[in-house]
Amino acid sequence: MLIADVLLSGLTLGGMYALIAMGLTLQYGVARIMNLSYGEFLIAACFAAYVMMTGAAIDPLLGLVLALPAAFAVNWAVYRVLLLPLVRRAKSAGALEVDSILATFGLLFVVQGILLAIFGGAYFSYSYLSVPVTVIGSTVAANRLLALGFAAAIGGALALALARTRAGTALRALAADPVAAQLVAIDVRAMAAFAFALGGALVAAAGVLVSMFLTFNAAMGVVFTMKALIVVIMGGVGDLRGCLAAGLLLGLAEAAVARLVDPGLTLAVTYAIFLAVLLVRPTGLFGRKAA
């Protein structure tokens, strides 16, 4: 069934887009760091999963459990060592954004250079549950369905934590107004570091899941950074609900165009939708309509 193929493919693709972008919406929307090296950390997680699977026969799902705390620690260290000095000296949010763009642009090449030195420019992949499964008359690889399921579980757990926990409330307050958050005894810098590190853990989770069905190389990070940034801006910076909606919208649109029109037009439709949202709702899908 053509419609089922488009829906299933679009939901799988959109779910992964949403998960990939959730980490960036925390880093940018809460910690106020525009992280241009975001995609490189996703690719690093892909390579970590590849090494664990091919070198030590560690199941990617177990690798996911190992990658999350490791990525959290690495990103926390990046924030404390590289970005916190920029936060301290920034005189405004705009100045911090410019400084973070420059700093993470440099970090992009550092991470990419390390990956290129270790793995070279070749493409890598590994076989994991690449067996066909039939769902509502459509055939899809089991690894893609598994990745979608874990992406949905991780996204749901994050949304629940933000809504029901004290730390989640603090993160939402920081995203809404850092100055007001400080006035109610929230340690703004500590919570910003936590948000940045949590965003890094989410992108590592996305990298492990993506590696189960995608061929990747060390230079692909910028593709994921741009896609995540598009989803974050479309959904509204710091809005997880908008992030999910934007990811699913792009996934379904790309799947429909690829199956019904021409696969070469998927990038064009992505940017067409992005520009349309910017014109109509510049604050995000769930923001106020532009006058």
Report what the structure shows.
By secondary structure, the chain is mainly alpha-helical. It is built from eleven helices and two strands; from the N terminus they run H-H-H-H-E-E-H-H-H-H-H-H-H. The chain has a single domain, classed as ABC transporter involved in vitamin B12 uptake, BtuC. Helix content is 75%, strand content 3%. Strand 1 and strand 2 form a beta hairpin. Helix 2 runs antiparallel to helix 3 (60-89), helix 2 (38-56) runs parallel beside helix 4 (93-119) and helix 9 crosses helix 10 (240-260). The protein is globular.
Q: Features of this protein?
A:
11 helices; mainly alpha; 291 residues; two-stranded antiparallel ribbon
Indicate the topology.
Blueprint: H1 2-29, H2 38-56, H3 60-89, H4 93-119, E1 132-135, E2 138-141, H5 142-164, H6 166-176, H7 178-183, H8 188-211, H9 221-235, H10 240-260, H11 266-280
Antiparallel strand pairs: 1-2
Helix pairs in contact: 1-5, 1-8, 1-9, 1-10, 2-3, 2-4, 2-8, 2-9, 3-4, 3-8, 5-6, 5-8, 6-8, 9-10, 9-11, 10-11
